[in-house]
Structures are given as structure tokens and as C-alpha cells.
Write a structure and sequence with these properties.
The complex is a heterodimer of chains A (158) and B (498). By secondary structure, chain A is mainly α. Chain A has helices at 2-38, 52-71, 73-78, 84-107, 110-125, 131-153. Chain B has 23 helices and 2 strands. The chains are: A mainly alpha (158), B mainly alpha (498).
Chain lengths: 158, 498
């Protein structure tokens, strides 16, 4: 029992370590590239530059991320797996889904994007009862919503 | 004062006004109950409807939508573990476990009763405090404001998530995201990459719906998929019996939590920028600390629902204090209300009480009436709302993505906002999986502008003269509280991990 709890805590610590590293890289990227190139500095002496506040927040994130890495260093070394790859896989799937949804919305309109998103969601849930209802929802709901939005708000969905 | 209140009730008790309030509450509950929409979207899309109403009926209608939407968010939070509104996220912590053990109807009753009670207390405070508050808040300078915000951040980082360090990171990530757009002082572009869509910054609705509602739905769907499409809890809810009953005596036996949460909600609501979600989580944390049953929180403890719902509904009334007294919106809903007032030729601010006193007191009366209607509609509708629980999640979850897309698309009619929502849904999934608080992220984002403005004003005001800054007793008090809260949170986290 104690060993299982330690293992859980270790996996969490390893994930915290990995999150801390990602955040450290992201905040360093913001401090050395994003802010200097995309936010203007002070126009005159004694003025508070528009970049001051983004720098402050990025430094706070960097400091906390460094602390997160430092406090979880031991857990990272002692635990072999943390589930980080599963999160990356989920994110990759979400990116593909999002791009496809936006492309369909833009090129073919709301109904096509709606049918696609609903079918994808049904596939992910792996719920296979009430198939006729699921089919009706996937094909009919986007069309119904498009009509309702037009009738109620006079807004034409693409 | 009494004469004014009597004439206000006379003005509010017209048929059209009552229809407007009732319609607003019903629409608010229905839209609030749809995950991904919520009271803000409901108000945004319904403002055009008020063109055809008198100013009092219009504002009463929108207040009804806000009240209904705020409490309606609790319905999917309890039944589906998918908060309809960000502020209902804390309701899900105890509401959903109650639904899982077959007490969905009782949990919904706790939510509606707490909502109305919190609302009523907050409206009473609004009526009593609107004038004195204006006088006190005008004494707060940017330094005091900065310290109050830091205190709020410390509290939030201390109570949410599994580590205060991760809470701080999430808050400051949100604050960083709030800096995207035009600089509030110089109007120079910050991280806009020449994109016109980014000049106004990232849309709060897109970020909140993406990170809170859609990511939660995606996680639910992935969980359902992993279980092979089988429901992880019994969907059969008893229609009657002890598991559904909630006598008034039992509800009011939690009077300490009700009162404390209503006060927290009212206090947070009165401070501009500190919105409904913060009130809900602060109140939840306070209730957990004060309760003898603190170990049962998160496993279906009714006090958790009461604390959240009383507090988030108490914000609805109280946030009108700065809105009416100063013209500063307490939160997004109040900002929409200001938009509607301006549309009807009324400018909120210190002169509103003298120039449109009848309307202001008519609004107060309408709010009291709205609470009664809210109780009746909410209570009678419980049997209808509970039917959500018998619909399999495999059927109800997929269409929610469509509602989220429409909810984000309608106010701005921009595909850009839909894209932002989808990005933040992905970020939300990753953050939830790694134990970072999404609520901290969203609140950091919401308060980012206010925090930056007050901090920059403080730095300009006390340019080098920091001894003068230390002499402010209000600032000193809040700084000491901030340090105390953070030290305590780190000690507690260390003990937990030891």
C-alpha cells in the first residue's frame, strides 16, 4: 500500500518536473525572444515601458517553474513513467481535430463542421447504444441549430 | 427612503416587468444549464431583445438572465460534472459525487435554495451599502488596489490545485496572456503579430469556455471512451424519498455557511474585477476550513454546494454596487449591463443615483421580486432539470462541443474566437492532466488588466518614494495577509507531501 502511494507520488513528481521544464523553456522563450521582438520598450527615460509588465509575469513564471523543477528532481530520477506521453498524444489528437474543425467551418460552413465534430466526439466516447439517436444528433442537430440561430437571433451561421 | 422603496415596488409590479423578469430567469437557467454557454453568453446574445423594452424592464430582464444563468450553471455541474459556467466549477466538486450516489435532486435543491438565499442577502446589502460604498471605494488608490489583488491571487493559489507553486504559475500565465493586445497606457501593440483580432487581446469568453467548459467535456469524453463507452455511475435517480427530499429546516441548519458565503460573495462582488468564480472558490475554501466535516468535502458534502452557490449568486447583486456607484463593472456580466444601460440613455456612475433614482430603486425592487420568481421557477423545474441525469453522457456530451462553438461564435461572429477557444481547450486538457488549476489561469487572465494598470499607476505615483507607500495602512494590512496566506499554503503543501 505504502509502495503504491510512493509510486503515485513519484509519478506526479516526475510529471511536475516535466511540466516545470516545459514552463521554464516557454518563459525563457518569452523573455529572450517573444517580448523583446514584439513589445516596444520605453519611449523616454523615467517612463514605464509597455514591456515591463510582461517581463515581470514571465520572470515570476520562470522562478516558480525553476522551483518546481528543483523540488521534483529526485522524483524524476527515481520514477520511470509519468503518463506524460499520453498527454502529448491527446494534445496531438486535439490539434488535428481543431485544425480540421476550423477548416471545415471556414470552407464548407457550420453544418459540415458540426457533423464532423459530433461524429468525432461520438467516436471518442465509444458509446454505442441508441445508435439511431446518435445518428440523428450528428446529422440533424447542426442543421437545426443553424435554423434556430437564424430564426431567434437573425444571425446567419457560415 | 421607505417612500422611495414603496414607489419602486409599485413601478416594478407591472405585468410587463414581471413577464420580463420571469422570461429572463427561465432563459438564464436554460442557457446557463448548457455547458459552454452560461450567463455571460446568455446576456450578450439577449441584449438586442431589450431594444423593445422600457429601461426598467430591460435591466430587470438582464438581471433575471444573470441570476438564472448563474444558478443554471450548477445543473450540468451537478449532473454531468461539466460546469455550465466557470463559477459553477466548485459546485461540481461536491454536487457531482452527490448525483453519483443518487442524490442529484437533493443536490439541485441545495443549489437553488442557496442561490436564492445568497442572492437575497446580497440584494439587501446592495440596497443598504450602495451609497456608503461609493464614498469608501473612492479612497482606494492604485497601491491599495494592487495589494488587494495580490492578496486575492495568494488566496487563490493557496486553495486551488495540488500545490501553491503551480497555482502561482497558473495565475501568472493568465496575467501574461492578459497583456496580449494594446498596452492600456500607450496603446502600443504587444504580442499582436500584426493581427487585428489581437488588438483587443484574447477574448475572455473564448478563453473561459475553452479552458473551463470544453476541456472538461473533452476529459469526460476521453474518460468515457477509456471505460469502453460504459457509464461510470448509476444513471438511475430516485424520483422520491429521502434521497430527493430537502426540508427547509435541514437547509437552514447550515445557516453559518449560508451567511458566511453570502458575505464573501457580496464582499468580492463589491470589489471590481474580483468576479463570481473567485467568490465561489474563496467561499468553498472558507467553508472547508471552517467545517467539522472538512474531510468529506469533495466527496458529496452539501456544505460545498451551499458555499459555492450562495457565494456566486451573492456576487450578482453586490457587483452592482461599484457598477451603480462608480460606473465600474464588478465583472463581465456587470459590464454587459452597463452596455445595456448606455443603450437606453442611462450613464452609470455617481450621478445615476440622483438623475435616475426612480430607475435605480425600481431595479432594486425588481431584483427582490426576481429572487422570489427564481425560487419558484427553480424549485418547480427541479423535476425537469433532474431528467438530464437519465440521459446517457454518451448522448449528451458530443453536442456540447457544438453549443460551445455557437456560444463563442454568436457574440463576435468571428471564427478567430472559435479557434482561440479550441486552443485553450487543448491547453485546458493538458493543464488539468498535469494538475495546474484552470480557474487560476482564467482569474489571472480576467484580473490581469486591472493588476497591470494599478501596479503601473503605483510605480508612477510612488516613483522612488517607497517609504510613503509603506505608510498606507490598508496596503500594509493586505500585504501582511498575502505573506501570511502564502507561508501557510507552502507549509500545508510541505506537510501533505512529507
Amino acid at each position: 500500500m505504502t509502495r503504491a502511494v510512493d509510486k503515485d507520488r513519484g509519478a506526479k513528481g516526475r510529471l511536475d518536473f516535466q511540466s516545470g521544464v516545459v514552463l521554464m523553456v516557454a518563459s525563457l522563450f518569452a523573455i529572450f525572444w517573444l517580448i523583446p521582438r514584439n513589445v516596444p520598450g520605453a519611449a523616454s527615460r523615467g517612463e514605464i515601458a509597455p514591456s515591463t509588465f510582461p517581463y515581470i509575469t514571465a520572470f515570476v513564471v520562470l522562478a516558480c517553474a525553476t522551483a518546481l523543477v528543483a523540488t521534483n528532481w529526485k522524483a524524476y530520477r527515481s520514477t520511470p513513467s509519468s503518463g506524460g506521453s499520453r498527454i502529448l498524444l491527446e494534445l496531438a489528437g486535439w490539434v488535428v481535430f481543431s485544425i480540421a474543425t476550423l477548416a471545415l467551418f471556414d470552407w464548407l460552413g457550420f453544418v459540415a463542421a458540426g457533423v464532423f465534430t459530433t461524429l468525432c466526439a461520438i467516436a471518442v466516447t465509444r458509446y454505442r447504444q441508441h445508435k439511431w439517436l446518435l445518428g440523428l444528433i450528428a446529422l440533424g442537430l447542426p442543421l437545426l441549430l443553424k435554423l434556430l440561430v437564424w430564426q431567434i437571433f437573425s444571425i446567419q451561421l457560415p | 427612503m421607505l417612500e422611495q422603496i414603496a414607489s419602486a415596488f409599485e413601478a416594478a409590479f407591472t405585468l410587463w416587468n414581471l413577464i420580463a423578469i420571469c422570461g429572463g430567469i427561465v432563459l438564464g437557467i436554460v442557457i446557463g444549464a448548457i455547458p459552454g454557454l452560461g450567463s455571460v453568453t446568455a446576456m450578450a446574445v439577449l441584449i438586442p431583445v431589450t431594444y423593445y423594452m422600457s429601461p426598467l424592464a430591460a435591466i430587470a430582464f438582464l438581471v433575471g438572465v444573470n441570476k438564472g444563468g448563474t444558478s443554471g450553471g450548477a445543473i450540468p455541474a451537478i449532473l454531468l460534472n461539466s460546469p455550465g459556467t466557470p463559477e459553477a466549477a466548485a459546485t461540481a466538486l461536491d454536487g457531482h459525487p452527490m448525483a453519483k450516489r443518487g442524490e442529484a435532486k437533493r443536490a439541485l435543491k441545495f443549489a437553488i435554495f442557496s442561490s436564492v438565499t445568497g442572492d437575497m442577502i446580497s440584494d439587501g446589502m446592495l440596497i443598504l451599502l450602495v451609497v456608503p460604498f461609493a464614498a469608501v471605494a473612492l479612497q482606494f488608490g492604485p497601491l491599495e488596489y494592487t495589494c488587494v489583488l495580490l492578496f486575492a491571487f495568494a488566496l487563490l493559489a493557496g486553495i486551488t490545485g495540488d500545490s501553491p507553486l503551480k497555482g502561482i504559475i497558473a495565475i501568472f500565465l493568465g496575467v501574461f496572456l492578459a497583456t496580449v493586445g494594446l498596452d492600456p497606457v500607450h496603446s502600443s501593440q504587444r504580442m499582436t503579430f500584426g493581427q487585428v483580432n489581437l488588438y483587443d487581446g484574447l477574448s475572455l469568453t473564448s478563453l473561459a469556455i475553452g479552458a473551463l467548459a470544453l476541456s472538461s467535456v473533452v476529459i469526460e469524453m476521453l474518460g468515457l471512451g477509456r471505460s469502453g463507452g460504459r457509464e461510470s455511475f448509476s444513471l438511475e435517480q430516485p424520483r422520491s424519498g429521502a434521497a430527493t427530499a430537502l426540508p427547509f429546516r435541514e437547509f437552514f441548519s447550515y445557516w453559518r455557511t449560508i451567511l458566511r458565503s453570502s458575505m464573501i460573495g457580496s464582499f468580492v462582488g463589491m470589489l471590481p474585477g474580483l468576479g463570481v468564480t473567485l467568490a465561489a472558490f474563496l467561499s468553498y475554501g472558507a467553508a472547508r476550513r471552517a467545517s467539522p466535516n472538512r474531510d468529506r468535502f469533495g466527496t458529496g458534502e452539501p456544505e460545498g454546494i451551499i458555499a459555492t452557490e450562495a457565494a456566486n449568486s451573492a456576487v450578482v447583486g453586490a457587483n452592482l454596487v461599484p457598477t451603480i456607484a462608480l460606473g465600474i463593472p464588478g465583472n463581465i456580466a456587470a459590464a454587459l449591463l452597463i452596455g445595456a444601460l448606455v443603450m437606453h440613455g442611462i450613464v452609470p456612475g455617481p450621478f445615476m443615483l440622483t438623475l435616475h433614482g426612480d430607475l435605480v430603486y425600481g431595479l432594486f425592487a425588481s431584483m427582490i421580486i426576481a429572487n422570489v420568481i427564481h425560487l419558484v421557477v427553480g424549485r418547480l423545474g427541479v423535476n425537469l432539470w433532474v431528467q438530464f441525469a437519465v440521459i446517457p453522457r454518451g448522448v449528451i456530451l458530443p453536442p456540447v462541443i457544438l453549443f460551445c462553438i455557437i456560444g463563442v461564435y454568436l457574440p463576435s461572429q468571428s471564427l478567430w474566437d472559435v479557434g482561440v477557444m479550441l486552443i485553450f481547450a487543448g491547453i485546458g486538457v493538458a493543464m488539468a492532466r498535469t494538475g495546474f488549476s484552470l480557474v487560476c489561469l482564467v482569474i489571472g487572465f480576467l484580473l490581469g488588466d486591472l493588476f497591470e494598470t494599478s501596479l503601473r499607476q503605483t510605480l508612477l505615483l510612488y516613483n522612488g518614494k517607497y517609504v510613503e507607500a509603506i505608510l498606507s495602512p490598508v496596503a500594509l494590512l493586505f500585504m501582511a495577509l498575502t505573506i501570511g496566506v502564502m507561508v501557510r499554503a507552502f507549509i500545508m503543501a510541505r506537510r501533505k507531501n512529507a
